[in-house]
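During the first year of the project, the team set up a workflow for recording each protein of interest as an amino acid sequence followed immediately by a discrete structure-token representation. This format lets reviewers and collaborators read both layers of information side by side without switching files. As required by the reporting guidelines, we include two representative entries from the current panel. The first entry is reproduced here exactly as it appears in our internal archive.
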Amino acid sequence: MPRGRYSLHDPHDHTPLAHEHFQCAPGPSGWRYVSQLTTPTGDHSGSVDLTLDELGRPIRLELHASSWQVRGAALDGVTWVRTDPTGTEATEGNVPAHAFTGTSPAFLIATTRLLRLTPSSAATRVRLVAFTDPVLAPRTVDQSWSLLKSEAHATDNGPLTVDEYQVTALDTGEQHSVHIAGDVVLAAPGIELDDLETPPSTFT
């Protein structure tokens, strides 16, 4: 069960945003990721709880940020309920999309589990609902993912396979790379892996 800490920062000006303390593991239903977020000064700022089924679909999502809450799942596309800080207003949303995304590294792992790309796969288009900080506002985004290469690297615990993905935002054409080993993001825009206590899980 990998556990560790990511640093999240603004990908444009590198302003520190948060630390995300996480643990994740494959399980009977597929894969689960839970994390707690703290500000750069150490104050609690939110949490992520995401469970995928064996096909990589989100069967349970719960996000907290700035006292806002989102609960969602893959249902008729993706469906969610967003609740305001007072708990009096709840807004339901539904979009014919494949999955969710957001600032957490969990969503990058989730997208790769959903797409199951190989280096010979053509670039694959995916529609996602992004929940944007600080109030978890929903926004539909279209991306194209391709797996550029998979390379094995020697480690003290045996070979570690690192996958390099290219992600294209279809509305702007902006491209970036994402490096993933198992169920851990090694590098991505706005994300740095600061600490990893146990090796990444290997998906079968």
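The second entry, processed by the same pipeline in the following quarter, appears below.
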Amino acid sequence: MATLPMFRLDGRVALVSGAGRGIGAATALGLAEAGADVAVLSRTPEQIESVAKQARELGRRAVAIPTDAGDPEAVSAAVTRAAEELGRLDVVVSVTGGSMPRPFTDTHDEALRKSFENNVVHGVRLVREAVPHLTRSDSASVVMVSSSTGHLVGRGYLAYGAAKASLDHAVRMMAADLNPNIRVNAVAPGAILTEALEVVAADPTMKATLEEHTPLRRIGTPEDVAAAILYLASPASSYVTGQVLAVDGGLVTPNMPLPIPDV
């Protein structure tokens, strides 16, 4: 078989959560470019309607489903609707999470609980709801979006880093539970130029710090991550499961150390 066609998703259906902007939007459109019909989920109807419209302009079927990732009933209903309206489900991409950095001594119980909820529970819930549909596919793939903070060490990121590290291992455990019919992998982005990073990147000094501390000397783009997700979602990675693929410019240490003093 030729290599390039292995990256195609013609006749497949992909569900992408957190698809209203940034990595999620770029991923939904990247999968659509590769031939997939897409269901795009997020809390903001206007954003996902725009993404769905762009996917349709690529010649794909697309449905926008406003969904709060923290609402179990809404997630279950969204997965069912996506499968019913598009006829099947082959790929699930979970783009959820986030947590504000803070010194360890200010990282209270609620911050830990909320970070674990946002970064682990929401994504695992989505996969669990999708499994009955994915088992009907002959090429099912799940891709979780983790973070380089899950394996790099720096001050201020205990809540976020611990949650993403947990997500990384959850990927391995889900892969074991769902072998051999559903592959489960993750990408671990570094500094990516999404809306969350625009304020930092707008400051020339801070932007230069990020670039100088990144071996490839640039900030990543949502498309950099979307390309990696396409690989993991497509038959090109049919012999890959339980893996976390770093998409971080070659980081071995955090590229924006926080000025948090010694205790």
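For the second entry, the following points were noted during internal review. The CA atoms of residues 187 and 228 lie 7 Å apart. The mean pLDDT is 95. Both points are flagged for discussion at the upcoming steering committee meeting.
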